[in-house]
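User: I'm curious what two different proteins look like when written out as structure tokens. Can you demonstrate?

Assistant: Sure. I'll show them one after the other, since each token string lines up with its own sequence. Here's the first protein:
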Amino acid sequence: MQIELNGKPHVVAEGADLAQLIAALDLTGKAVAVAVNRQVVPSQSWAGRMLVETDRVDVVRAIGGG
């Protein structure tokens, strides 16, 4: 199925959840924030948040600096 990831079309497996998407993006364990349809989803809820066709997912990676 197709979702929108950071403004671009992205294909994910049918029945995938946010945790699987983050793993597929090789971001597991990294400092990221995720919003689905403009609502922030806490990392502890990623495994339970199933993705559906047309979801708009934004993944932002935290970068340290000074």
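Here's a second, unrelated protein for contrast:
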Amino acid sequence: MSPEAEKTRREFLEEALRQHPDNTFARYGLALELAKSEPAAAWTHFEYLLLHHPEYSATYFQAGMFLRKQGRLAEARTVLATGVEVTGRQRKQHAQAGLQAALDDLNERN
């Protein structure tokens, strides 16, 4: 994707958050966009979602993988384990299995 298209997506998500700061989907999307080039900024959005929207289960996998990539392995384990619990309560078996596999992989490799 061209840098112009990336910028446009980021700008769209930032505008959506300016209009609706509690828009979980826009905040999640912006975190994913920022993870590519601005990890500190990305983490602020992941952390916001984890703290203010703990039932937004999509966050756990991506936040856990982000932390792993950043070398923050203990935090990654905590986020993934919490995600396993949350998705279990929500009966989202597919998401729970993915989180558990990521957690198991992290524990085996590191």
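A detail about the second structure: The chain is about 80% helix and 0% strand.
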